Amino acid sequence: MQRQGRKRNTKNLSMGKVTNSFVALLLISSLLLAPYLSISEAADNSVPIVSGLSWTFYKTSCPKLESIIRTQLKKVFDNDIGQAAGLLRLHFHDCFVQGCDGSVLLDGSASGPGEQQAPPNLSLRAKAFEIINDLRNRVEKACGRVVSCSDIVALAARDSVYL
Comparing 104 with 67, which gets the higher pLDDT? Predict the structure, then answer.
């Protein structure tokens, strides 16, 4: 009888040790990570931007911008979730070579083909271009020509990941 009691006590002691060890590890980890978390928060607020640019420009010039894009993309993704990958890939192809400038959206002209016809971009989904054009039309209807095409592509890519 006494052996069973001792086994139970040993089991309880080892569970207690595991719990105490876990709590200690959690406490030490949080103490070690706390400075990094506060640094990253401070860094977000103190990132220098180019004179004339603002983090909140669209909040005043086109306050419904993010809502317009997110609402329309929810409808698109409810119909075909695969379009999310197409929009993300479109953004990647726009940004990869010369930065995120929306140039992948440009059609060709008399001087030559546009980026859409460049060999690496031929496999991009045609529907992704249609979605961006639809978003651009909706944004222009609500806000005028304030929002750049590259920002629409970037917001669509962000929401493709988020939604």
Answer: 67
Which residues pair with residue 109 across a beta bridge? 112
52 within domain boundaries: no
Q: Which of 69, 91, 93, 131 is catalytic?
A: 93
Please give the span between the terminal C-alpha atoms of the chain, in angstroms, as a whole number: 60
Active-site residue 93, yes or no? yes
Annotated binding residue 101: yes
What does the pLDDT read at residue 48? 64
Is the Cβ–Cβ distance between 89 and 128 less than 8 Å? yes
Report d(CA 76, CA 84) in Å as an integer: 9
Q: Which of 143, 148, 156 is nearest to 62 (CA)?
A: 143
- Would you say the pTM of this structure is higher than 0.85? no
78: containing domain: 57-162
Check the annotation: does 114 bind a ligand.
no
User: Is 140 assigned a ligand-binding role in the annotation?
Assistant: no
Q: Where are the beta strands (DSSP E) in 21-132?
A: none
Which CATH number belongs to the domain containing residue 85 in this structure?
A: 1.10.520.10
Q: How many residues does the chain have?
A: 163
